[in-house]
Amino acid sequence: MKRRRPRGKIVRSCPYCRSSRLIFEGALILGQLYRCLDCGYVGPLVLEEEVPDSGTPPS
Ligand SMILES: [Zn+2]
């Protein structure tokens, strides 16, 4: 298994409403559980986006 090098920070957002107001709900056997504070979604699936820490967005 390859692990991506952490170059920025990972921002997690809700797959339904794209909100980034997710809280960590707990750990499951297969992964983690998150809750969205905006739409109430609870589940292990969240969108993860890597954003560079030091400004300069691409193009
Ligand atoms: Zn949501």
Category by helix and strand content: mainly beta
User: Roughly how many Å apart are the termini?
Assistant: 31 Å
The biggest beta sheet reads: 3 strands, antiparallel
Mean pLDDT: 86
Which molecules are bound besides the chains? Answer: zinc ion
Topology:
Blueprint: E1 8-13, E2 22-27, E3 32-36, E4 42-43, E5 47-52
Antiparallel strand pairs: 1-5, 2-3, 3-4
Give an overview in words.
- The chain is mainly β.
- It has one domain.
- The protein is built from no helices and five strands.
- A three-stranded antiparallel β-sheet has the order 2-3-4, with no helix packed on it.
- The protein starts with 7 loop residues before the first strand and ends in a 7-residue tail after the last strand.
- The relative contact order is 0.32.
- Bound molecules: zinc ion (ZN).
- The site of zinc ion has 8 residues, from loops.
- Zinc ion is lined by residues 14, 16-17, 19, 36, 38-39, 41.
What's the short story on this structure?
It contains no helices and five strands. It has strands at residues 8-13, 22-27, 32-36, 42-43, 47-52. The strands form two sheets. A three-stranded antiparallel β-sheet has the order 2-3-4, with no helix packed on it. It has a two-stranded antiparallel sheet with strand order 1-5.
